[in-house]
Amino acid sequence: MDKIERLLVFGDIHGKWERFLNVYQKVGFNPEHDLMVFLGDYLDRGENPVPVMEWVLEHFGSKNMIFLRGNHEQMFYEALRDESLKDGLVDFRIESPKYLWGDNGGKETYRAMEETGRLKELTTTWMRLIEKMPLYAEVEAEGHKYWFVHADCNPEQPLENQRAKTLLWSRNLAKYPSLHQGEQIIVLGHTPVQALRLGSKPCWLSQGRLVLMDTGSFLENGHISCANLLTKEVWQSN
């Protein structure tokens, strides 16, 4: 792509299929002119994760679409990677990957997958997909460098040198935006703006160099949000 006309980013979806589709249709993505980055957490908590899973499977690898891995994809992967499915999510060891995933919204995803009658197929295809999902993306547009990660990063370290646990789980920049003194624009999901008492829309902090995109998709008063980072135009679910 010679010139990106719209640099689009989606916040966390969390199995809210209808809300996601509502926003995606509003945006009118054009792969010839737009670049769209998804920040991860496609699954869990929401009541309709399977259509989201199937949509991501269908579009992964499409022109000018980037799908990052979130901590919920990581939990899914670790819970089901080496575990038998015959016992479902029954595991009373609090430290186990199965328990962690199930207790953080995985039960809803697992139940929805079971109801399709294609549990094994969906699990296998999604596991393979997660393995392909990058933990970060770096994009240059209109003279700025953009860093996309699901949860957090150290602005002073190259992305390729950062710990996966930080990229997937931490919340330092979201809680303490002043930690970012660099020139790159860092775009995060993972931490709902509602938890930080910042309203319910994407937030530009640190003189616009830190963007928070998780707008509480699974909350009653939450939204799924997409933003054009070049203009700060925002689309949200109804």
Automatic annotation (TrEMBL):
GO MF annotation: an example: phosphatase activity
Gene Ontology cellular component annotations, sorted alphabetically: cytoplasm
InterPro entries: Ap4A_hydrolase, Calcineurin-like_PHP, Metallo-depent_PP-like, Ser/Thr-sp_prot-phosphatase
Domain (Calcineurin-like phosphoesterase): residue spans on this chain: 6-200
Full protein name: Serine/threonine protein phosphatase 1
